[in-house]
Amino acid sequence: MKSFVLITGASSGIGLDSARLLIEQGYRVIGTVRREEDGVRARAILGEAFLPLRLDVSDSAGLPQAVRQVEQWVGADGLAALVNNAGIASPSGPLMLQPLEEIRGMFEVNLFGLLAVTQAFLPLLGARQDSTRPGRVINIGSVSGRVATPLTGCYAATKHALEAVSDALRVELGIYGIAVVVIEPGPICTPIWSKAQPDTRYVDSDYAGAMQALFGLLAHNGAKGAPVATVSRAVLKAIDAPRPKPRYPLNPMWYLAALLPTRLLDRLLAKRMALLRRPAR
Prior knowledge:
The chain is α/β, with parallel strands linked by helices and about 280 residues long. It has helices at about 15-25, 35-45, 65-75, 100-120, 155-170, 210-225, 230-240, 255-260, 260-270, and strands at about 5, 30-35, 50-55, 80-85, 135-140, 180-185, 245-250.
């Protein structure tokens, strides 16, 4: 058996499939789940090489116990990698109207929770001068970390922030030999899209039509998104490569957005999301 890998948000989608692929390649996977029954189900699917760890990444009070449990499992071997996958993509809404409490809540999971988990487990990844087996930090980002789609600006903001955090960590952790990698998928066919339900709060606002267009797009992404294995293979590559790339963009929009003039990109997004300015009456 190879070394241990810790994956957050391993009960479904990208986390579960990444665990499957890593176990097939001989790794032992510790996967965080929020509910005990999710851990039981994942272990039934993945087998004894999967160890469920009950942890909500936004629950800082539960982190010390989780670290102690992982220390017992991995012993002196430590962790080969931490895959920060747990995150939420909804609720959505126009930033002009979206409650700040919702925005803070998404940052709490997608950024602050991720950073708290990373800080807590870095010692097991070799963040010390006497370490001879440095691990890797793999952050699951998004094409939204490059392109902010209207009405999902809050989610995009968390992923833009993740890019900055990853850039800083990559240099800071270089003194220990710990590589930091960002995987940047586009829409992936996972249960995350089914959790994004139509939001009626904005039905009487100027954004009602745009919100309808947004949820039509989300439904399309859920049906036509790239296979989840696309991300799992990138995670495996980032762990196994002798010298991993800092970024693995998995959607052409990442490159296209860098080439298009900003105003043109704005117009394309506005048209797609029914946000074109109406003529004055």
